[in-house]
């Protein structure tokens, strides 16, 4: 497999390279790709150095798969060019997610929708991936009516500039700001820009992408997304109303047997998911599983995952692994 990593010098791109190596992905030729200002820089993969190339050079090299993590505008411009050259693109940006002609994939849920004709495949938003991985088996069993989610999102979701802002604030150093406000000792109730309805883009991604991935437009979703001074991953308080009643122990058992999900739920031992312990891991962790006593057929959960791993790089690479296993590339 000739693999192009587009955005190889960025935060997610670096994690992609790490995950490719960890999972022994069958890379016969690695093509690191970035913007013109990074062309000629060297990156290291499995102990070997590779020179970063520009976009058109990468298109001309006709990779089998291109893993994109370079922003929406770049994806809109370049993904079709890669696809036209015969490369299958798996894109991490929001550019193609709600395009009705493109598949939005979490492999454990809907990879079987993919065909060899899918040359641009969308990777969902990080906060959506971890939530739907937990919701999907429960939806099949109990039928979800409504989801209320509040997120507590890592600064790594914003990028290197935000990590630098937090480090500067820790050190008492004035520097460039990724946010309009300090993030150290703070919680900012805004992830991404606002839409006309008063919700942020991040909140509406949770709404729209959940329906698309679960193939059910009847599910009502409302979200509040908050940025917190955390590095390890995103956390979510999720309240789910079902059409049918459930047994809490059965819910735990269903989730225990769900690929990619780890149940951490024991009040006696104070066991519950936390971003500090999710960092660097590919699983989605769920705990604080309990009945909502204020309303029938309703469940509360706490869901945590490393947003750079399963929320971005790992999910992208799992899609690529599926394409290879299914002989679609």
Automatic annotation (TrEMBL):
Pathway annotation: Amino-acid biosynthesis; L-lysine biosynthesis via DAP pathway; (S)-tetrahydrodipicolinate from L-aspartate: step 2/4; Amino-acid biosynthesis; L-methionine biosynthesis via de novo pathway; L-homoserine from L-aspartate: step 2/3; Amino-acid biosynthesis; L-threonine biosynthesis; L-threonine from L-aspartate: step 2/5
Pfam families per record: Semialdhyde_dh, Semialdhyde_dhC
InterPro entries named among the record's database cross-references: Asp_semialdehyde_DH, Asp_semialdehyde_DH_beta, NAD(P)-bd_dom_sf, Semialdehyde_DH_NAD-bd, Semialdhyde_DH_dimer_dom
Residues annotated for NADP(+) binding in this entry: 9-12, 37-38, 307
GO biological process, one term: isoleucine biosynthetic process
Domain Semialdehyde dehydrogenase NAD-binding intervals: 2-117
Secretion signal span: none
EC assignment: 1.2.1.11
Record: residues binding substrate: 153, 227
Chain sites annotated for binding phosphate: 97
Entry keyword set: Amino-acid biosynthesis, Diaminopimelate biosynthesis, Lysine biosynthesis, Methionine biosynthesis, NADP, Oxidoreductase, Threonine biosynthesis
Top enzyme class: oxidoreductase
Catalytic residues (positions): 126, 234
Recorded GO MF terms: aspartate-semialdehyde dehydrogenase activity; NAD binding; NADP binding; protein dimerization activity
Catalyzed reactions: L-aspartate 4-semialdehyde + phosphate + NADP(+) = 4-phospho-L-aspartate + NADPH + H(+)
HAMAP family, A to Z: ASADH
Known role: Catalyzes the NADPH-dependent formation of L-aspartate-semialdehyde (L-ASA) by the reductive dephosphorylation of L-aspartyl-4-phosphate.
Family: Belongs to the aspartate-semialdehyde dehydrogenase family.
Subunit structure and binding partners: Homodimer.
Protein name: Aspartate-semialdehyde dehydrogenase
UniProt source species: Flavobacterium yafengii
